[in-house]
Design a protein that fits this description.
AmhX-like; Alpha-Beta Plaits; about 35% helix; Aminopeptidase; alpha/beta; hydrolase; 4-stranded antiparallel β-sheet; manganese; 9 helices; 2 domains; 7-stranded mixed β-sheet; hydrolase activity; Amidohydrolase; about 375 residues; about 30% strand; disordered C terminus
Length: about 375
């Protein structure tokens, strides 16, 4: 049997073989091939990428989730799949965690499940995994994410990430074209788009809770500059730190679409394409993670739960299964210039430390649950 690759070697392979959402076939194959050399029980899916691996048996069941997809973005003038959100590191860290827990299997009891989830970047994979039942019997769920240097310094860790809610809408303005010399014969879709943008800047909600709405794409007109376009398509990106404010923001945006449609007497249709919920975490899971951070890197490197306006579909697991106790490990790694930047870099030395923290979090969780069960039986 050949020796296992190092954590860095796994990262390098995954980094140089990125695959976009729902196309993570080779990524799944690579992970499965590594797990063939372990005692883990592996489940793959006939209808798509991703896999689940398990060590141990019985309750309690503690799960760790790693997202596996890359982004599609322009890098050095070429469009390509690119790991600029850290999912390559997440996979490598979780694989290293699996290897370490396998070596320690004689000192713990219960089940540890490793969820390698596709399609996080398009906010679909977690919901699909929930429907497949992969967390039905899970008691605790831990996630992880690299954090930009603006949030955590290298070597700092936090026991939770307060992600905000995100909602992605696509709109269509449906009118008719007109001759450039006869602007009275139609409604300029570009003018309508400008009105939408202007009115959205007038949305005012509770200033103590971060929120934003912005147009992220707008397509109207063609190659003929003497045609006034009557149609357009556009995309909206909505963000809010809480699920409640996201609902308020959506109502305001929909009211603006209705008002502009009436003003210009032009149909405007808005469709929800995808969304991510704001974080819902368990205080108990956070306590286990915080204790593990302090045990591995000390008190000085342990920070409070961080708040970020970014989103993650990880939180659908707890929303769809409210009794699931979950949190995410925030990893300070000198990440710059920022998440989703095509040239994102980070300090690789933190990866084994993050794995050590996850190992300890699992052992803390299983140990406390088993001790509690033993006490109850006695």
């Amino acid at each position: 049997m050949s020796s296992r690759p190092t954590l860095e070697e796994m990262f390098e392979h995954l980094h140089h073989h990125p695959e976009i959402s729902w196309k993570e076939t080779e990524t799944t194959y690579y992970i499965a091939s590594l797990l063939e050399k372990t005692n883990a029980r592996v489940t793959q899916f006939d209808d798509g990428p991703g896999l689940v691996a398990e060590l141990g048996s019985g309750r309690p069941c503690v799960a760790i989730r790693a997202d596996i997809d890359a982004l599609w973005q322009e890098v050095d003038g070429k469009w390509k799949a690119n790991h600029s959100c850290g999912h390559d590191a997440h996979m490598a860290i979780v694989l290293e965690t699996l290897f370490a827990l396998e070596k320690k299997q004689s000192v713990w009891s219960g089940t540890v499940r490793f969820i390698f989830q596709p399609a996080e970047e398009i906010v679909e994979g977690a919901l699909v995994m929930v429907r497949k039942g992969v967390v039905n019997d899970v008691d605790y769920l831990y996630g992880l994410h690299l954090r930009p240097e603006q949030e955590l310094r290298t070597g700092e860790f936090a026991p939770g990430i307060q992600h905000g809610a995100a909602r992605f809408l696509e709109g269509t303005i449906s009118g008719e074209d007109a001759h450039g010399a006869r602007p009275h014969l139609n409604k300029n879709a570009i003018d309508i788009g400008a009105e939408i943008i202007h009115m959205m800047k007038g949305i005012h909600l509770n200033p103590r809770i971060p929120y934003s709405v912005k147009v992220t794409s707008f397509h109207s007109g063609g190659k003929s500059s003497n045609i006034i376009p009557g149609t357009a398509t556009f995309s909206l990106d909505l963000r809010a730190q809480t699920n409640e404010v996201m609902e308020e923001l959506t109502v305001k945006v929909e009211a603006i679409m209705n008002a502009v449609s009436d003003l210009y007497d032009t149909p405007i249709d808005l469709v929800l394409k995808s969304e991510a919920a704001a974080a819902e975490w368990s205080e108990e899971a956070v306590e286990y993670m915080e204790k593990s951070i302090r045990g591995v890197v000390g008190d000085r490197a342990c920070r409070q739960i961080i708040q970020t306006t970014g989103g993650d579909d990880f939180h659908f697991y707890t929303i769809k299964k409210p009794d699931l106790k979950a949190t995410m490990l925030a990893i300070g790694c000198g990440l710059k210039p920022g998440l989703h930047h095509p040239k994102m870099t980070f300090d690789h030395k933190v990866m084994p430390v993050a794995s050590d923290i996850l190992v300890r979090a699992v052992l803390e969780t299983l140990g406390n649950q088993n001790d509690s069960s033993d006490s109850h039986r006695n």
